Amino acid sequence: MTLDAVLKEKGPIKKIGVLGMGYVGIPAAALFADVPQYERVYGFQRDSASSGYKIAMLNRGESPLKGEEPGLEELLQKVTSAQKFICTADFSKIAELDAVTISIQTPFLNKEDLLPDFSALMEGVKNVGLYLQPGMLVVLESTITPGTTIGIARELLENESGLKAGVDFALAHAPERVMVGRLLRNIREHDRIVGGIDEVSTQRATELYAPVLTRGKVIPMSATAAEVTKTAENTFRDLQIAAINELALYCEAMGINVYDVRTGIDSLKGEGITRAMLWPGAGVGGHCLTKDTYHLERGVRQLGKGMLDYPADEPSLYVLARHINDFMPTHMFRLTKGALQRAGVSLKGAKIALLGWAFLANSDDTRNTPSEPYRDLLVNEGAIVSVHDPYVADYPGVPMVPFVEEAIENADAIVIFAGHHQYRTLKPLELKQLSGKKHPVIVDGRNFIDPDVYIREGFVYKGIGRGDKNGHAMVER
Ligand code: SAJ
Predict the structure, then answer these.
(1) Max CA distance (Å), the chain
(2) Which residues of 26-36 are buried (b: 16+ CB within 10 A; e: fewer)?
(3) CATH number of the domain enclosing 284
(4) Residues 278-317: pLDDT tens digits?
(5) Could you confirm whether 348 is annotated as catalytic?
(6) Same structural domain for residues 284 and 141?
(7) Which residue is closest in CA terms to ligand 1's atom 4?
(8) How much is the average pLDDT of 122-145?
């Protein structure tokens, strides 16, 4: 029988499973459960010490996710009370389903070796394979190295089940594109990339996702093209940030203001000539941009082995972009050190107020924060670092102060690392009085302050991309 015939015999999708009750799987399961023609959705969660607690929480209709997620709790209450969504650790229930999606994270063990940690994801895939039945659809939603769906995922499913992908069951990749704080809206409104290992699998996966989409539409393609789309869309964002970061470093070296140049270039608008000018800053953190480039690189090295035509001895532009973005905390360190020298203060023993530990403005997310390598450089030189972040109360091994005034009190340097809105109201005179220094240093990593206002108060100013101000004359007050 062809896969098409097997699926026709299975009939329309009615019962769905979602593996991985995280910030991707929970909203996906809740939205599936809210589709009238879907009768039952199981959320599969290992009853492990670290996250088994989610099972009971979710079955009470409560979300275990941190931070505000508009509409999610109400939706969970609705689908759990209607018994349309049930969270369970009993993976054998997979055997009774029509479709299963897998949203289990794939962090990197070691970025430079391009070695992602697929262990959790592959355990999930193995669990699906154990209970896989003919006519089922399996969809990987996690961000994965191009070649994974048609490669190790397909092999694992076939070995565990004895079934054949593309013959007995459908297999696809539909990458998640959600951002915390707008999970439900993103799933409903973003276009959904759906990539099957064959046309029939793509069609079946389209059938699964279409009812969930409101403004978004399905964009069908091959599984590998879907994997490249996901990793490359973040690679390109990282590249755009690296491009403006490099321009900022050039402008500092040439003594000009990168924001004047940015405004100038950005004025070239319309008719397809617009430039993608993002914002220079103290660095790039998070769990997307810091890893997806390496997934893409690993993919082309494996799948494209021996086939890639590329300028000899030139590094990957994308990995170079990663290195430029990862350099920005070092640049912030050098700006800090240079400014302290101008203020006649040695880095050793100096007190530095580090404002912002989250990797993103107005967020509590600290994954891969660029503030951490910056702090490490300072601590290695014997500086005393006082960290403040209005959204982050603690972080392993990093003492935090609850009030920004405590960080600034008696500080030799004040460094803005995350663009939290609370830092927009900082007043130079207050900061100077709190620091108690004649020439306190201020380093602006997010273009948050007006240099002149601080220079006039006797501050030693440094800012990313502010070559026009970084060599300013000292003002005696
Ligand atoms: N950053 C800059 N300059 C910029 C933009 C960002 O330095 O112009 C820095 C931020 O400070 C942060 C890092 O880059 O440290 C990442 O910022 P981000 O806005 O890209 O936020 P992420 O990492 O949460 O990216 C996610 C991605 N979403 C998914 O993978 C589903 C990304 O594809 C989205 O484009 C991004 O959110 C978004 O636009 O919100």
Answers:
(1) 86
(2) bbbbbbbbbbe
(3) 3.40.50.720
(4) 999 999 999 899 999 999 999 999 999 999 999 999 999 9
(5) no
(6) no
(7) 279
(8) 96
